[in-house]
Inverse folding.
């Protein structure tokens, strides 16, 4: 009997890992595709990041409903619904390239598709995080599974901007979203396969057979460490997306001197950021059984502050050689040293999602499912902060905009040191 249970848990864990990868695949289409729209609308970084904003804006509307879906229809049906919605969202993005020659109309259709995809990844996130934490038994083991799933998430995130950059090549007025149709078709195919896989496997339903919902005297908002953790997630997702997204715009700009194929080079270098997230999450998955989430969060916050400050102050005239992609082949390309320090931030952001989630839901008991929905609502920060960062960049310089990232890393340090402590242990959670 125990062997059957263990086998069932293993299948469920692998399934959640697969969904974790899908989340990143869809989410990370937005920023590199944004370089296309950026080129068609006066080189505006804000407009280029608007698709990413719409993707994350959906979390604001779907976060809490997604948490309620878990309680009412369960993990499996929520995941299936998310995959169906994701297919529709990708198809609408594809339609933005065939609706006509007017870029304004195409952009509007694309933003609609990005918004629909946001609903999908919000629901998927709501499923995978509490499920992996549950299957790991919470605590350090729960965080270990989340970090392992996050490693696959990062692998997917590494490949996406690389593929988009290779398909785009050099940005011109003739570049359109139709140039990335092969990737959209691939994404739609993956959603269909994912739907069939989830349909076929058994997923544990921790909320099944619990009877009618009981009105509780408290909620996740009653816990200070959860509230501060919600703010941390809002800010964290913003810089996780903003660091590489803004870096792509920065390296694609003429001032960096990358010349023809700059978008391909920028996409490949941004992919290194996601690759380092993969490295960081893989390492964290190994050590999380012994090293607490709090210790990891404190360490990477300090390192992140150091890397970004160095990126801001180092002169662009100092060049380093980094792997790029041009003319259908990988090459070593001379880029400003600022890019190297920003790419290294991938090691720092890699463990933050799992660490913050793990710390924020620790001790919540029966409030965990509701907390997960609220967390998903706070992921809207992934759309808001990059938009603010690029508004700062448009008004000043790209490097100036990274002071926003420094401030966020500072908050993460505060949360790890002080804010993550549960000071509401008197609240019953059984």
């Amino acid at each position: 009997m125990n062997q059957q249970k263990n086998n069932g848990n293993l299948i469920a864990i692998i399934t959640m890992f697969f969904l974790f990868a899908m989340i990143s695949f869809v989410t990370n289409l937005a920023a590199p595709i944004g370089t296309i729209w950026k080129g068609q609308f006066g080189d505006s970084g804000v407009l280029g990041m608007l698709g990413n904003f719409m993707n994350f804006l959906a979390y604001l509307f779907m976060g809490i409903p997604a948490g309620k879906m878990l309680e009412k229809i369960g993990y499996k049906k929520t995941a299936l619904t998310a995959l169906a919605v994701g297919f529709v969202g990708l198809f609408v993005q594809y339609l933005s390239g065939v609706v006509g020659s007017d870029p304004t109309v195409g952009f509007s259709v694309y933003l609609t598709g990005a918004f629909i995809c946001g609903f999908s990844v919000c629901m998927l996130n709501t499923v995978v995080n509490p499920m992996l934490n549950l299957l790991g038994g919470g605590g350090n083991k729960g965080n270990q599974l989340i970090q392992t799933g996050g490693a696959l998430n990062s692998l997917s995130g590494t490949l996406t901007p690389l593929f988009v950059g290779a398909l785009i090549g050099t940005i011109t007025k003739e570049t359109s979203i139709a140039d990335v149709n092969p990737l959209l078709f691939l994404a739609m195919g993956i959603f269909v396969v994912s739907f069939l896989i989830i349909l076929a496997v058994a997923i544990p339903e921790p909320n099944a057979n619990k009877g009618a919902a009981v009105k509780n005297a408290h909620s996740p908002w009653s816990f200070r460490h959860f509230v501060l953790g919600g703010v941390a997630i809002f800010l964290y997702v913003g810089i996780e997306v903003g660091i590489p997204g803004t870096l792509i715009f920065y390296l694609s700009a003429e001032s960096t001197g990358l010349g023809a194929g700059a978008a391909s080079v920028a996409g490949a270098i941004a992919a290194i950021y996601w690759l380092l997230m993969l490295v960081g999450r893989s390492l964290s998955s190994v050590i999380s059984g012994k090293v607490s989430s709090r210790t990891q969060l404190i360490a990477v916050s300090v390192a992140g502050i150091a890397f970004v400050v160095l990126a801001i102050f180092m002169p662009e005239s100092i060049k380093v050689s980094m792997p790029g992609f041009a003319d259908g082949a990988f090459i070593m390309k001379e880029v400003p040293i600022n890019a190297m320090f920003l790419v290294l931030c991938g090691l720092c952001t890699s463990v933050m999602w799992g660490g913050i989630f793990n710390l924020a839901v620790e001790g919540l008991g029966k409030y965990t499912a509701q907390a997960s929905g609220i967390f998903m609502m706070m992921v809207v920060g992934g759309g808001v902060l990059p938009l603010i960062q690029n508004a700062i960049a448009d008004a000043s310089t790209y490097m100036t905009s990274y002071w926003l990232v420094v401030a966020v890393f500072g908050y993460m340090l505060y949360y790890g040191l002080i804010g993550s402590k549960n000071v509401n242990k008197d609240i019953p959670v059984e």
Notes: DSSP finds 16 helices and two strands in the chain. Strands lie at 319-326, 329-336. Residues 2-202+220-419 form a domain with the Growth Hormone; Chain: A; fold (CATH 1.20.1250.20). The mean pLDDT is 81.
